[in-house]
Specification:
single chain; alpha/beta; eleven-stranded mixed beta sheet; four-stranded antiparallel beta sheet; globular
């Protein structure tokens, strides 16, 4: 009995030693992060950072474009080497080596790198987009490369992205019809991201690297760092939730194992009969994809050494389900922008984003719904430098939160990039309100553009406009347009004091410029939300 017990202890000890040796060996082996690899696109006109892990104190040599750069791994095995600034070009090869290991990287381009992030409407793949099949068949531009960051949550910032069983996820891929038709990401790369890349390639001709780090159904607080959020006292509730997840993690992990086993068994039975309610997976102990900081930690933090030209962001739906959340977005969203700029050490990193589209029933009164408050928060973020907002309520679907027209969205983002980032002299936005005057029972609106195009709504006239008096009750207004002004009036409002335009979950598309871009929703009042 004792002899058998002693043998068991010896065997267990040997296994532990083997595991330890393997762990030390893995730590000492030269390794690159997932974002650095063959087919990658590096950012032009800025110092290029290459980093990874090797044995402590081991010298690492990077050879690139005829030059060699050296660095030494620290006690934590991490090393970082900065390469010279390079103009757009390629393809190039790169060698990363230690005295006994060498990694060869091929087909490297230097151009502009854009990070696409947000929730499901950014995640929405090119394969299921309205014009996707034609776009895929024509996708033969080998100077566009894609990288999809595998989903990962974490309670603390990670140094590398997640590994994945899908061989195409977490790898740099060269644009082609076969790649875009393949089974990776969610029905292929982001349709918004692809159409943006196609438009920028046509306008600028520079190689593009498109990184997709997105996850459907996720709120903005999951994408911000703990450090960035704590700079805003008004957002403390999210930090408190994170701290509770940390404190309860061990207990919840133990419960989760049992719950997960029961769920898998129930799912197996349900798959046989398809009767009754479908089993729901238990919440993971770290809070999952919607918990504060989790997606920043798992899917953004590992990228922050990788230089970017800018960010494309499409998110907000998950912060518009409650009035409290919609109003908080006015603080949360700018905090996220500032945080990412801090993380990338780029004070004015271009941040271009999509305002929420239309969804739910058409408005019955001139001011209603929750999403207008999210749109207002998004518009307010334009106060930050180097930001741009694509207005898209005219290409939404009142019955589908995932409208299939993503081509117009990508193109409108590309217009913003061409104007703000690439300094082209073009019109990139629809009309925006400059000022207004009240004259008797009428309101005169002044816009920043001439040649306004006003289209009548089929049901209630020019129903996008509402005016209110001191009672703060908005009534539909009729509108007439002349050059860059619009005259509003409503028989029920004798002394107007405020105007709201397209203040609804699903607003009508009635006001455009001659370029076909819709006017930005607005309000002239500062009244509290109801």
């Amino acid at each position: 009995m004792n002899k058998g017990k002693n043998n068991s202890i010896k065997v267990f000890t040997i296994i532990l030693l083997l595991c330890f040796v393997q762990a030390v060996s893995a730590q000492g082996r030269l390794r690159l992060p997932g974002i650095i690899g063959t087919n990658m696109v590096l950012q032009r006109n800025v110092p290029i950072v290459v980093w990874g892990w090797a044995s402590p104190a081991e010298q690492v040599v990077v050879a690139f474009k005829g030059k060699k750069y050296t660095g030494v791994a620290g006690k934590d095995s991490a090393w970082k080497i900065t390469l010279d600034v390079s103009a757009a070009g390629g393809p190039y090869n790169m060698s990363v080596a230690t005295k006994d290991t060498s990694i060869q990287l091929r087909n490297i381009l230097i151009g502009d790198v854009w990070l696409c992030s947000g929730q499901s409407n950014m995640e929405f793949g090119i394969q299921t987009e309205k014009n996707g099949e034609q776009a895929i068949s024509e996708a033969k531009d080998s100077l566009v490369h894609f990288f999809f960051v595998p989903w990962k949550t974490a309670l603390s910032p990670q140094s590398d992205i997640a590994t994945t069983t899908n061989l195409l996820n977490g790898k740099w891929l060269v644009c082609s019809p076969d790649v875009l038709r393949a089974n990776w990401a969610w029905h292929g790369f982001s349709a918004v991201g692809y159409y943006f890349a196609r438009a920028i390639r046509a306008a600028q001709g520079v190689p593009l690297g498109m990184i997709g780090s997105y996850k459907g159904g996720t709120p903005a607080q999951a994408w911000i760092s703990e450090e960035g959020l704590k700079k805003e006292p008004a957002l403390v509730r999210h930090a408190e939730r994170h701290n509770k997840l940390l404190a309860d993690y061990d207990v919840q992990q133990e419960k989760y194992s049992t719950q997960q086993s029961a769920y898998l068994a129930a799912q197996k039975e349900w798959d046989k009969t398809k009767s009754g309610f479908k089993p729901q997976a238990p919440a993971p102990p770290d809070g999952g994809f919607g918990a504060p900081f989790n997606l920043y930690n798992g899917m953004i933090a590992p990228l922050k050494n990788y230089a970017l030209r800018g960010v494309l962001w499409y998110q907000g739906e998950s912060n518009g389900d409650r009035l409290e959340d919609a109003l908080e977005y006015k603080t949360l969203f700018p905090a996220l922008i500032r945080d990412w700029r801090t993380q990338w050490a780029q004070k004015e990193l271009p941040f271009l984003y999509v305002q929420l589209t239309s969804y739910r029933d058409t408005a019955t009164v001139p001011s209603q719904g929750l999403w207008p408050w999210v749109r207002y928060a998004q518009q307010s973020a334009l106060a930050l430098p180097n930001t741009g907002m694509a207005v898209i309520y005219d290409v939404g679907d009142a019955k589908d939160i995932h409208p299939k027209n993503k081509q117009d969205v990508g193109v409108r983002l590309s217009l913003l990039a061409r104007k703000i980032v690439y300094k082209e002299k073009i019109i990139a936005n629809g009309p925006q309100l400059l000022s207004y005057d009240v004259k008797g029972d009428k309101v005169i609106l002044h816009f920043d553009q001439h040649d306004l195009l006003l289209k009548a709504s089929a049901s209630t006239g020019y129903s996008g406009f509402g005016i209110a008096g001191d009672d703060k009750v908005f009534h539909w207004a009729t509108a007439t347009v002349k050059d860059n002004t619009i005259l509003l009036s409503a028989s029920a409002v004798k002394h107007p004091v405020a105007v709201r335009f397209n203040w609804a979950d699903s607003p009508p598309a009635i006001l455009y410029n001659k370029e076909g871009l819709p006017a930005t929703p607005f309000r002239t009042d500062n009244w509290d939300a109801k």
